Amino acid sequence: MSQRIIEVKDLEYSYNGFKAVDGVSFFVREGEIFSFLGPNGAGKSTVINILTTLLPVQKGSVSIAGHDLAIEPQAVRRSIGIVFQDETLDRDLTVKETLELHGRIYSMPGAERRERIEEIIALVELEEKRDVRTRYLSGGMKRRLEIGRGLMTRPKVLFLDEPTIGLDTQTRRRLWEYIKRVNDSGTTIFLTTHYMDEADQVSNWIDILDHGKIIASGEPATLKNALGSDMIYLDTSDNPSAESLLNGLKSVRGIKSTPQGLAVTINADGTRCLPLIMNRLQEKGISISSVNLKKPTLDDVFVHYTGRDIRDAGAGKLHRLPLPKGVR
Amino acid sequence: MSWEFLTIYWRDMLRFVRFRIALVVSLIQPALWMALYGAAMSSNLSRLSSGLNLPAGAASVSYLTFMGAGVIALTTLFTSLFGGITLLFDKNWGLMRELLASPMPRNHIILGIGLSGVTKSFIQVMVIMGFGLLIGVRLFPGYTPIQTAGAILGVLLFVGIFSLGFLFLSSAISMSMDTPEGLQAVITILTLPLFFASNALYPIDAFPPLVKLLSQFNPLTHLVNGVRYFTVGQDFYAVGIHYVYSSSEIMISFLALAGFAVAMFLIAWRVFQKAVVT
Fold it and tell me: What number is the average pLDDT over the span A252-257?
């Protein structure tokens, strides 16, 4: 079992009496890609800001790369790289100057700094832009530059706060190639993202935060499997009757009523269950207006645990199935 | 000793050189003061004071020369008060999180901004003195080259220490404000009393007692004292007033400015230690 490079215990943080983070504990293993997910306002940003030393540790403890954050913030700062959620560039410095500034404020010796600048520019493929001011770079290039900058000092952990937000699909895919390459070379990645498909594809481990607490934790596959093998989405002429009818079926594990219809979680193979369910409903005179069969995605996991879509913070709580937390 | 503040300095100077328009405007502004306000006021004043009899052998100084020191001081004040504004922009749209999350001690940000602001003021002051000499401001009257060099160093010393104080103040304000509009308002409110309750453009001798008292605590007054002492001399008549500066008075002015700079640094330091930018 590899070492825990980040260890957070009983972390609490309050803003003027409001508890934004309410007793959060988790750890990140060295070398993994760890995703930290949660709806807007869940307390995610507060946790990241504490971990990256922008907010103080009010209560609880945080250790990063063997340094206690409250005691040795400077040592932590030297061990991490950060890509902030919002653009954090001086628009009037060139690509090279941006990296130069970073190397200098992290006290990198001149020769090493110059060598690393060239390596980083090559890594993020900005060779042709090295003397261009950052205001003239595209969104994807700026992001690449910020990721490269985060890697300048060869940090043990790289924090990526929504690294792909607002970028087109192609650019996102390219960015993930860089991030995976960085991870392959041994850097631990701490990631937050609104894109569930990305978290699903890249993460070794996922923690979901809501209302200041960790509400689910596990490998992506484990989290998805816990929802049942398949989901069937139904809309019928009489949803309440359909719900009570289907609840009696052995293969049905749980039903959630949504404004769009019923979301049925089933235990068995959905392709075989679906005809059965449809026959049963028609026998009782309930007509089906739409039907959809889906393998569970991380989106479903998210909706299941937080009661809302990751982009939709307003929705109320839905019924929750009792699910095991991932064990490691 | 760590030198990261030089990085902040380097970056701010890079921006200064890159924004040529700001550079040019910062040089045109004092020139306009002298060429327009100075010319207008000096013809008025010479008409009003033409009847005055000065003692024989007294060194009389033209209004333009008298206000030369004032223009140097005002320009330094404006430039320095706005010197920290870059921090506000960094905070809202730029580099501040990167700087605050780095291992660099935060007082290096204050020092770096201070140093680059002083450099900008020095450039301005040298240009103003050059331009002043061109339009007939009689600076360094009868000085030998060595005395002139010494006097210039004296001026820069006063300008430097004064500028630092206001740059630290400006940094503290910029770091505490959320919007450029708020910053603009605060700086305007600060500028006017500093400007008017000082001896920059007219003598303070005829001020009402309260304003006169205030002007004694005004850093701008102390800067003007120092600059006038070095550029014009220690014994002269201007605007019908006999000016005598003793070296101890000048020393007190310098110490007042140094004390002001230290106090402002401590305030800025505190603001930066407590600053949270997320």
Answer: 83
Determine the distance in angstroms separating the CA of A191 from the nearest CA of chain B, rounded to an integer. Answer: 17
pLDDT band at residue A114 using 50, 70 and 90 as cut-offs: very high
What's the DSSP call for residue A318? -
Option in B2, B7, B18 nearest A101 (CB):
B7
Enumerate the H helices of B61-177 as residue ranges.
63-81, 85-93, 96-100, 107-134, 145-176
Q: Do A106 and B104 touch (CB under 8 A)?
A: yes
Query: Under a CB-based contact definition with an 8 Å cutoff, are residues B252 and B221 in contact?
Result: no
CA nearest to A161 within chain B: B278
10 Å Cβ neighbour count for B208? Answer: 8
Provide the 8-state DSSP code for B200.
S
Amino acid identity of residue B86, one-letter, is T
Measured at the CA of A138, the angle between CA A154 and CA A120, to 5 degrees, comes to 20
Cβ neighbours for A52, distance < 8 A, ≥ 6 positions apart:
A80, A82, A159, B101
Terminal alpha carbon distance of chain A: 10
For range A199-208, the mean pLDDT:
91
pTM of the model: 0.83
ipTM, two decimals, is 0.87
pLDDT of residue A281 exceeding 90, the answer is no
d(C-alpha B27, C-alpha B25), whole Å: 5
pLDDT of A323? 45
- Residue-wise burial string across B162-184, b where 16 or more C-beta atoms lie within 10 A, e elsewhere: bbbbbbbbbbbbbbbbeeeeebe
Contacts of A136 in chain B (CB under 8 A): none
Residues 6+ apart with CB under 8 A from A254: A228, A264, A265, A319, A321
Low-confidence winner among A114-128, A148-162, A294-308 (lowest mean pLDDT): A294-308
Q: How far apart (Å, rounded) are the C-alpha atoms in residues B268 and B107?
A: 8
Collapsed DSSP state (helix, strand, coil) of residue A18: strand
Over residues A83-93, the pLDDT tens digits come to 998 899 999 99
Q: Which residues of chain B have pLDDT under 70?
A: 1, 49-58
DSSP codes, B136-150: T---STT--HHHHHH
Contacts of residue B146, Cβ cutoff 8 Å, sequence gap at least 6: none
Residues of B in contact with A53 (CB under 8 A): 101
Percent of chain B predicted with pLDDT > 70: 96
